[in-house]
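>> received
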Amino acid sequence: MKVSIIKTIDLGFATMALRSDGIVNTNMLIKEAVNLDQAKELTTHYIDITQGIKTPHLFTANKFVIIEKDVMEYMKDIANEYGKADAFVISALPQKIMGNFYLKVFKPKVPTKLFSSEEKAVKWLKHFVD
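>> returned
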């Protein structure tokens, strides 16, 4: 079954798409660290695109994107309240280091995993689709 896009939001620094399989894909377009203001804007648009319904969330980015520590704290405490599961597709060693730090130190409230391929991430997220 081919996945289609139901709705897309372009934020300039990222795009967010609600897919027909019930997964939201946030693709970071910047080539730097994600800051707290951007994380808050992403959360606002995630709530909008999902109409407040908890859904699995796929994060994709180029190899230069990392997440700042204050963003990790925000994700754990606030952003995690709105989703079912988070899958991060990583392609660089700094992302893997930061991702593992997030998982071990911040212990997200929703199931969260790191993947080296989008295909594997989507397969795992589909377990969280109603």
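>> The mean pLDDT is 94.
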